[in-house]
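Researcher: Let's do a round of design. I'm pasting the structure tokens now; please hold your answer until I've finished.
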């Protein structure tokens, strides 16, 4: 299983690189934005598989570590010019089952991407707060 997660991660990184190459050859901003969003979704899934590959338990991931890494990736992708954005992450250190990791990871990616694209327009600074708790 570890090898499968490694191969999936590598294949997703290839797809991400192809989207990146395509975006460099396009002049239309809407097309570049769409390709960037797709690339970020692919990278989110690759990040989950990378964590599974590196984990001792192949059935769950550490969601706090995932969100911390996802935030770093998205801050690099959506460089909000002239704005100091402070992340505030509050996630219960609870093992997250793989069956939920990809859909929840993609939802978190969408929420953070939208915040970075739209919430800080014409602002000098701001905070992104991420809170995730486990319930029965």
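Researcher: That's everything. Go ahead.
Model: Designed sequence:
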């Amino acid at each position: 299983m570890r090898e499968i997660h490694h191969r999936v991660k590598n294949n997703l990184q290839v797809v991400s690189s192809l989207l990146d190459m395509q975006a460099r050859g396009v002049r239309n901003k809407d097309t570049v934005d769409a390709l960037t969003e797709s690339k970020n979704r692919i990278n989110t899934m690759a990040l989950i598989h990378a964590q599974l590959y590196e984990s001792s338990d192949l059935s769950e991931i550490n969601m706090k570590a995932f969100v911390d890494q996802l935030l770093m990736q998205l801050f690099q992708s959506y460089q909000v010019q002239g704005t100091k954005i402070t992340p505030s992450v509050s996630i219960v250190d609870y093992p997250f089952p793989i069956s939920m990791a990809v859909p929840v990871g993609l939802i978190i990616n969408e929420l953070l991407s939208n915040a970075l694209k739209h919430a800080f327009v014409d602002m000098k600074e701001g905070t992104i707060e991420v809170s995730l708790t486990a319930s029965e």
